[in-house]
Every structure is written in structure tokens, then in C-alpha cells.
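Chapter summary example.
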Amino acid sequence: MSSLHRRHLAVSPDWLALYYKNPLEITHGEGRHVWDADGRRYLDFFGGILTTMTAHALPEVTKAVSEQAGRIIHSSTLYLNRPMVELAERIATLSGIPDARVFFTTSGTEANDTALLLATTYRRSNQILAMRNSYHGRSFSAVSITGNRAWSPTNLSPLQTLYVHGGVRTRGPYAHLGDAEFIAACVADLEDLLGHTREPAALIAEPIQGVGGFTSPPDGLYAAFRRVLDRHGILWISDEVQTGWGRSGEHFWGWQAHGESGPPDILTFAKGIGNGMSIGGVVARADVMNCLDANSISTFGGSPVTMAAGLANLSYLLEHDLQGNARRIGGLLIERLRAIGAASECVREVRGRGLMIGIELVKPGTDEANPEAAAAVLEAAGEGGLLIGKGGGHNTSVLRIAPPLSLTIPEAEEGAEILAEALRSVD
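The structure predicted for these 427 residues follows.
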């Protein structure tokens, strides 16, 4: 055990998880690679939990941060802030929400907290619909709408949460149905649920469930839900903390795979927009955003330095068509991983879109989750020079792959080879 690891254990909570038997101290990065304190280089396929969206040490972002820090680092939302207004204008336009208003926070958790505050105030209801297998953050209200036992440490809650079917396509009571029948069954379940309860404030959903193992419903499910929700006046919150900014390749926002009934009422974002800087936020149409009747500010949300980073990062993303790169390179990578998975007795499914890919592991010859294999593959991949993540529903048995969106073909091939070797080590 390293001396830093011992110091970490002496001052940190027991529940503050670390990856790897010998946890890594990451000292610096460049492009799609990072280095540890021993000077070893790793190909990064997890991007600080989907946060290093464009590249490590991206010169455009580093320059913007440095220049802004040299002028002023902090002022708070009590003063006009040009970078904040400029980034809000761009995000409002990109969101697809009409007459959009934007409020910046410091994290996705805080963004989802704000969305819940808006929805419950607007609707005068503390009842929330959430998806099974979901994850929305670590605050008291966010864990109370999280449908994943591994990340919900308490059932005490300020909200009454009702969980809906549909976030996981290949498991559960409707897994055997075709896509159209699956959607119809989930809609019928939602209709039945609403017949037994008081009117909820909102449905919150990740278009692709992140911590849940990169699971998603068939395209159009949330559009079908929206038609039901609209009849009841229930708001739709799309949690885009992990799916936003083009990571899925096919769409800029995850909700657009379900857009036939229009955009969400509220959209939350974070992670990738700051490329490592702490940015979160909420977009909502004006009547929803303006429903609060008391003062509110954010001391650190929308800080000049983080906004400068977000502007530079978003510009780079759009100017270099990283959404298109995610679609092209992600498509090649997922097919390569499916071929590798077909040769492994542990791999149940390789799924995902763009550069958001999950590999679900099971015990050979069964459909039973295999968290031990997932942990072993993560460890073996790290030893081979590749950083990945893990997650999953009933048990943590899904390998999560989400590299920076500037990933190249040679890097995708290199990562796939390391993963193939890691999977062979547990077969």
C-alpha cells in the first residue's frame, strides 16, 4: 500500500470508493492518455466518469482558463458575468426548449436538485416518477429518486418516488417483447400507475442510464410517455448529465431519440461541458424556471473561470464535429467489442451508442450477473494500460466505456485489444 493510499484511508469516509487493488494517483494527461505517479501511461476509456469530454489538457480550454484566471476568478451571480451569459445563450439555443432559461450549478447532482425544486414548486406536488435502474446524484433528494440500490444509501426522502418500467430493454418483465410491444407495455404500466396515485410533479429519466450500465429503452419510449404525461400536466425532466453534448453520436441530446412529442420541459446537464471543470446546469422553459417566489443565487455556479472553460470546450466540440467522431469511431468500436464478446462465455451483451458503451458480464452458461468478473476485468485492463469504469443494475457487472470524444481509430483498436486480453483472463 502506498503512503498516499494510507493517508487517504486515514482521513476519508469508508464509503468513498477507489478503483483498483493498488489505487492510482493520476498526475497528468494529454489527449486520450493519462499518467500515474510512477510514470506509467494509460489509455483513458472512462474520462473521469464521462467528464473529460474532448481531451486531456486540451490547449483551447487550458488557454481560456488561464486567461480568465488572470483577469478575475470569482464574482458570484450577484453581478453581471459576460462568459456566463454567452454560454447560457448558446446552451439555450442548443437545448431545443422554446423560450429557454438557463441556471448554472457546480455539478449534475445540484442540477437535478434544482430541477426537482422547480418541478415540485411548479406542480405543487412532492411526488416524482423515476425509472428503475436510474441514477441522478448523491444529494439527499437525488438519492431518493435513484432506482439503483448500490447508489441509494437511504430510503428516507423529502419526495414520494414511484418507479416506472422501461429504462432497461433486455431484462425485466417486458424483455421478451418486440420494441413496439415493449413500449406499449411500459406505457400501459405508466397509465395504470397514474390511476392509483395523486398527480406527480414530473418524470425524471436518463435517456441512456449511465451508472445503471449504459442501458436504454427503444427509441420513442419517452415520446410515448410524454403523450401520457401531457394529459396529466406532468413535467418531463431529461437528465442529460452523461448523454448530452453528442456523446451518443446519433444525437446531440439523448432526448432527441424520443423527440416526436417535443423537447423536455426541463433538461439537466453537467460533466462533459466543462472538460473537467465543475459545471452543471438546468435548462427549462421560462414559466417553469420562473415559478420560484423567493430569491435564489449560486455562489459558485457560473463562475467566470468555469464558464470560460465551457465556452472554449463547446466551441471545440462543435467546430471539430466530435459528435460525428463519436458516431464513426463509436460505431467501429462497438462492433469490434461485439466480435470480442461473442468469443467470451462471460459476455451477455455489448450495448450502447457512440462512445457510450456497456459490456454486461454474467456467470458462464447463466443469465446471472457476475460482479466478480467485472472487477477482475477492470483490474486486468488497468494492468494492460487501459482505464475503464463499471456499473450495472441489480449488481455491478457492466464494464463502462466512455473515452473522450476525440478518440482516434488506432486508439480504439488499442483499447479493444487490451479489453479482449482482459476478458480472456477471466474466461
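To summarize the output: The mean pLDDT is 96.
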